[in-house]
Amino acid sequence: MKAIKYIMALVLAGGLMAACDTDVENREVQKPLTYDDLYYQNLRDYKASDHSISFMWFAQYGAQNSMAVRFAGLPDSLDICSLWGGIPAKENTKLWDELRFCQQKKGTKMLVVAITRIDAETDDHSFKQAYNEAKAMPEGEEREAALKKAVEMYADYFIDQVFENDLDGFDADYEPEGDFLSGNYFNEFMQHIALYMGPNPEQTKAERLKLIQQRYGNGVTDTDKLLCVDAPGSPSTELVPICDYYFKQAYGGGTSEGVWPIEKTVFCENVGDNWATALQGLINQAKFQPQQGRKGGFGAFFGHRNYNVTTYNPEPYKIFRDCIQYQNPAMH
């Protein structure tokens, strides 16, 4: 913990020095601050350390000039970002440059995220066609095998999005609302993804690397991508061993620990609907510390709306940045 506090203090010091730059020549509107290599190394070291994380679902990004909806405007100390606005189009090179900078220089993990409902998918997908054919089969082992294959194909669809875009993992939004992909079928879906990412205890790194390279080529070597689940209620505890984090939609500021291990539980508040308030729920979640161990972290849905300046938020991301400090205080 002392090491984390020391690293955070160095990160803060770097930010303060950069913020004191008085050069006003050729100034652009909302020009990002620049930092030296040591600042970014300290930032990456902090994020690689064992600590309670900060997390955000980020959306509405595009070609806009406002830093509120750009990757460059995200808080430097943000650990994990789920791409709620979707994977950016390849032709939007400026957006990708900023995303890669966050990944490579700041150490921010960028996750593919999706509401996992196979019934809601369009019929042009091969996995949906396989699913439709399986559903039409008579009850029995052959039908179950066909359904399992369709579920695995659906899982492959998201695995490909992660690896083909060189992103850092997958966040499965589990809100079935009557969808077929629930219960044991959702568990099977996650178990298949766990062959390629997450802390799968039943698989060695060598076994995983072999699978990855068979599918994506020998140039792909990352065996440490994250597998996460998010939900308003507790997903099956069968998923605990294969998931890095459970992003708990504890909207309203709740901190009840539930059945998942506290060190994997990230308590999340709905900033999107409540951005103009004091965000006391988010603050409570950031400040919360369990009686034993540490929590997984705190997070925010549509967290980028805390960029907006309000009566309670005098500067962009003031509340969110304060929450990072409440959770992991820097040692000055």
Characterise the protein shown here.
- By secondary structure, the protein is an alpha/beta fold.
- It folds into two domains: about 45-105 and about 270-285 and about 295-330, no CATH class; about 115-250, no CATH class.
- Helices cover about 35% and strands about 15% of the residues.
- The protein contains ten helices and eight strands.
- The protein has helices spanning about 1-20, 35-50, 95-105, 125-135, 140-165, 185-195, 205-215, 270-275, 280-285, 320-325; strands at about 55-60, 80-85, 110-115, 170-175, 225-230, 245-250, 265-270, 295-300.
- Strands 1-2-3-4-5-6-7-8 form an eight-stranded parallel β-barrel, surrounded by four helices.
- Strand 2 (about 80-85), helix 3 and strand 3 form a beta-alpha-beta unit.
- Helix 1 (about 1-20) packs antiparallel against helix 2, helix 4 (about 125-135) runs antiparallel to helix 5 (about 140-165) and helix 9 (about 280-285) runs parallel beside helix 10 (about 320-325).
- The longest helix has 24 residues, at about 140-165.
- The protein starts with a helix and ends in a 5-residue tail after the last helix.
- Mean pLDDT is about 90; it is low at about 1-5 and about 10-30.
